[in-house]
Amino acid sequence: MTAPDTATPETAAPETTATPSDIPSPEAVNTSPEALYLVDGSGFIFRAYHALPPLNRPDGTPVNAVLGFTNMLMKLLAELKAEAVAVIFDAKRLNFRNEFYPDYKANRPEPPEDLRPQFAIIREAVDAFCLPCLELEGYEADDLIATYARLAREQGRPVTVVSSDKDLMQLVRDGVRLMDPMKGRLIGPEEVAEKFGVPPEKVVDVQALAGDSVDNVPGVPGIGVKTAAQLITEYGDLETLLERAGEIRQAGRRQKLLENAELARISKRLVRLDDAVPVPVPLDRLRVREPDHHKLIDWLKVQGFRSVIHKVEAELAADGTLVDGAAPAPAPAGRAPRTDVRTALDSRSYAPAATPVPEARDDGVAPQPERVEYELVQDLDALDRWIERAREAGTVAVDTETDGLTPVSAGLVGISLSVEPGRACYIPVQHIDPATPKGATGGLDLGGTPPPPPQIALADALARLKPLLEDPAVLKVGQNVKFDWQIFARHGIAMAPIDDTMLISYVLGTGLHGHGMDELALRHLGHTTIKYDEVTGTGKSRITFDRVPLDKARDYAAEDADITLRLHRVLKHDLVRQHMVTLYETVERPLVPVVARMESRGVLVDRAVLRQMSSDFAQRMLEMEAEIQKLAPRAFNVGSPKQLGEILFDEMKLPGGSKGKSGAWGTDSGVLEGLAEQGVEIAQKVLDWRQLAKLKSTYTDALAEQIDARTGRVHTSFALAATATGRLSSTDPNLQNIPIRTEEGRKIRRAFVARPGHLLLSVDYSQIELRLVAEMAGVPALRRAFHDGIDIHAMTASQVFGVPLDQMTSEIRRKAKAINFGIIYGISGFGLGRQLGITPGEAGAFIRQYFERFPELQTYMETTKAFAREHGYVTTLLGRRCWIQGIREKAPARRAYAERQAINAPIQGTAADIIKRAMARIEPALAAAKLDAAMLLQVHDELLFEVPEAQVEETAAVVRGVMEGAAGLGVPLVAEAGWAPNWAEAH
Question: How many domains, in total, are found in the chain?
Answer without folding.
Answer: 5
